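Reopening this ticket.

The earlier resolution said the output was attached, but the attachment link was broken on my side. Pasting everything inline this time so it's all in one place.
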Amino acid sequence: PSVSALVATSQPLFADDGGSETFLSSATDGHLRLNGDDGWEPLRSSNEAAEVFDDLRYIKINTRPDIIYRGFLFFDTSSLPDDQPVSAAVLHIYSKCTGDLDDTHLYILGGNEEYPHEPLRATDFALPDEALPVCAHLDVGEWADGLAYRTIPLDNAETVINTDGSTKLCLLERRDYENDTPPDLHSENELKLFSIEEGEGYQPYLEVYWGGASPDQKTPETTAPTSSSSQLASTGAILAAVAACIAAFAAILAVRRRTR
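Inline output:
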């Protein structure tokens, strides 16, 4: 879709079965990093202030015995209709796994009104006492084949998507979520995805469906979102090619007339 289609405006796709909207992530997306020398468990459950990174071109999720990165995505979904139930949501992230190919997993958790803060605060490293709903759990080892958009259907969309404000997603590596101590400093499970700051064609975006609509009701996307100018350039190239074919055909007809 073009950038205009990604802007958070109501775009009913299915007259009888609800509709959908697509949202780019907010400029507040980012990650938190916390280092510690007292062992894994004190680090993972720490209430200490973490370092906030919310202006980089990437978001990092990572685990080592002495360091944890937790990623966060925010989407302004306040334009969704209040009178239609959310039926599905699909997250798209442009990412690559650079960790242990047999062990790196990604958990995506749904935030709430209180957690995390937007913009991120250093104290948001401490997860809330009440467990956050799991929206997705993925084995991302196969993502090491290169940078690409990853399409991730989200569970619990009806409770996680916020029709009155910001939808918040928390990204944790498997060892962090499952409290599985990394064996050593060399066993580093790392995942990177581009943030909104990377620019068009790489930003995270979220598709939300309501009123019974679902991703199966339209052709799946196979390319990154493109801008209106890019679409116009593509259309111009097609028209130029058609014009060239017409001109060539006309030339052939002219030659045939002269040879009769």
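Reporter confirms the inline version is readable. The first strand starts at residue 19 and ends at 24. DSSP finds five helices and twelve strands in the chain.
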